[in-house]
Every structure is written in structure tokens, then in C-alpha cells.
Amino acid sequence: MLPNHEKVRQRPAATSSSNNDLHKAGMWCIIYTMKTTQPAKNAMRRTNMYFSAPQMEELTAMSASTGLSIAELVRRAVDAYLATARKKKELK
User: What pLDDT, in 10s, does the model give residues 37-55?
Assistant: First the structure.
């Protein structure tokens, strides 16, 4: 776990008119925040992501079984995807 790690806050997507359709569709919003003293190049940045209800259920279950936060699982998945994309690019 990274220093100054804060827990992931999970909540239904906002019910404002712009997000009302996502809320009705069972979409969830994950917000990750982190305070860091790392150099700016490696600093974490906050972002919002929307997951379907089944994706959220699976992420929640995986988080519970691994002990990792959902944010960490998503970061690892993105890292794996980017590494695969880089390898494919190198092969061309």
C-alpha cells in the first residue's frame, strides 16, 4: 500500500440531471484520493470512473478476497493493459 493512502469512497453516481441516466442504470462512481509527497512525475491524480453494477460487484468481491482496495485493483489492471499495449506496439 502506498503512503498516506486514503480509503476508496464508493457511492451511487450523483442524481443530477446530467448523471440521472447513469444512476438509473445502476452505475457506480469510484473516487480515489491520495495525498502524496512523491515527485510530481509520479504523483497520483484523482479521477472518476463509472462501472456497471456487475463490474462493481465483481470488483468489490475481488477487493474483499485480496485485501486490496478497488482503486489498487483498477491501477494494476490499467498497468497490465498498458504493458500489453506497449508490447504490441513494439512488435509492429
Answer: 556 677 888 889 999 999 9
**Whole-angstrom Cα distance, residue 31 to residue 16?**
17
- β-sheet with 48-51: strand ranges across: 9-12, 28-31, 48-51
In angstroms, what CA-CA distances link 71 with 10, 17, 49, 59?
Answer: 11, 27, 10, 10
Encode burial over 29-56: b for 16+ CB neighbours within 10 A, e otherwise: bbebeeeeeeeeeeebeeeeeebeeeeb
Q: Per the confidence metrics, is the pTM higher than 0.70?
A: no
